[in-house]
Queue: 2 jobs
Job 1
Amino acid sequence: MKYIGVILLVWFATNRAGQDIYVCKNATVSLYSKAPIEDIDARSDKGTSVLNTATGEVAFSVLIRSFKFDKALMQEHFNENYMESDKYPQASFKGKITDKPDLTKDGVYPVTATGVFEAHGIKQNRSIAGKLTVANGAISLTSEFMVACKDHKIDIPTLVFQNIAETIRIKVNAAYSAYK
């Protein structure tokens, strides 16, 4: 009888925790740089994210090489010269949503996640604003924020400074499914 209680307790805790965990395996992450000579625009649909609605914890990750550009040469320069993708293969954010909303009700909720953003091997404490949307029980998250190249030691050679902006706009879109 004692073991049945332990088994039920473990099952309940595991089952309950599973209901609070949501994942996205195909988050869209885009980057945009407005520069005098040429804009840089790239997109990846291979971002991953986990959202714990009970604790407000959220994590994102994207492989740098998964970004696709219109021009192959631009993609090559991005990976080899600027982001050094072989040495720093991913960018990530891990944090916690402050003032988490009641996600049992449909609506659009402005949120801020505070945590650590890492790109090019440099970690930076950030507060990133976004919107959580709940529609018929489905949860999605969108965010747009700026990343300064100098904050992550992404060097822009003087020769091409007019081709690349000093700050890059990042957009994230994730549609979550309950973790099973």
Job 2
Amino acid sequence: MTWTAPPVVRTRQLGDLGSVTERRMLEGRETLLAKCAGLDPDRLARATVEPSGLSLLGLVRHMAEVERSWFRRGFAGEDVGDVFTGPSDGDEGLGGVRAADAERDFGVYRAEVALCDAAAAGHGLDETFTSTRGVALSVRWVSMVMVQEYARHNGHADFLRERTDGVTGDA
């Protein structure tokens, strides 16, 4: 049986939003994976919005890079390299996508998110660290950057998914 991107179980329902903490709201990452759910590796790796070479799998890989860069290298100061490819090559995981690696790449993304959550766990949103440029940044600021990054790429994912199989909406 061919692997497909797994379905996403939403961690909160619309009616529960009034009781969700700020931290939990900032950690939401489900939409990108929901846009990929049910697709086989070939469709995940396919660039469908010409002339861009962007693919859903490339977005998943890219977000693993971005998570690692901000939370593990930036905030936690971990000496870790790139997950796939990084800022030094200007690619940041978007290219080099291979359908044969889709299941592995999804696993890497999920593991990276868990490691990033662990790096920030127990630290307040107002806690600061010094960036590589010598600027004091807070966990809240980084979390907001991540919200913006996911929002931008979830918009890309909307178009990619619709062009892949016609699925639209909050899949």
